[in-house]
Write a structure and sequence with these properties.
The chain has 177 residues and is mostly helical. The strands form two sheets. It has a two-stranded antiparallel ribbon with strand order 1-2. A two-stranded antiparallel ribbon has the order 3-4.
Length: 177
């Protein structure tokens, strides 16, 4: 990976900040991440989405609830997991009532979509379990049960982390937050 440099217009990026590699033979959405970036991305998602789930208990609009429910319905009926799961989580950030959370989430869309796609390509059998957990999360939000909503969000993200850690390597503590 190269970044601009005054001398020749580019230089190799500093490895300590991690790497994001678009794969040349695949669409841009197929991205390889160094473990440090993967870990940081999942920490970011955990932090933001757990807070969004908590806030959604008080702030969700009926139309956002219906859109999230539609994502789960489509997932259960064989819809594209990458699309439905991404849209559900994006709607969760919107349901928080904090526009900055959804803007930050959207900024990482290619990476988040790639991780979702990799999760379900490695372990396709997780789709129905994932739909069940997402439905329980939506029910907790509707019931305004903040603790349950946060707990289910953590469980959903941990399910993906467990599968993807096999791909990116283990890091003690990544699932423990």
């Amino acid at each position: 990976m190269f970044i601009p440099d005054e001398a020749d217009g580019r230089r190799e990026a500093d490895k300590k900040f991690g790497w994001i590699h678009p794969c040349c033979t695949y669409p841009l959405s197929d991205i390889e991440l160094d473990h440090s970036i993967f870990s940081d991305m999942m920490d970011f998602r955990r932090l933001v989405e757990m807070e969004c789930a908590r806030l959604a208990c008080d702030n969700i609009y009926d139309n956002t609830y219906a859109e999230m429910e539609g994502c789960i319905d489509a997932l259960e009926q064989g819809g594209d997991p990458e699309e439905q799961v991404y849209q559900f989580h994006y709607r969760l950030t919107q349901a928080s009532g904090n526009g900055i959370y959804s803007m930050f989430f959207r900024a990482f869309e290619p990476v988040i979509r790639a991780l979702i796609k990799q999760h379900y390509s490695v372990k396709a059998g997780d789709v129905q379990e994932s739909a069940r957990l997402h439905r329980r999360l939506l029910a907790a939000i509707k019931a305004k049960d903040e603790q349950q909503a946060v707990s289910l969000t953590r469980e959903i993200l941990s399910q993906g982390v467990a599968v993807l850690e096999e791909r990116y390597g283990s890091n003690d503590g990544i699932c423990k937050r």
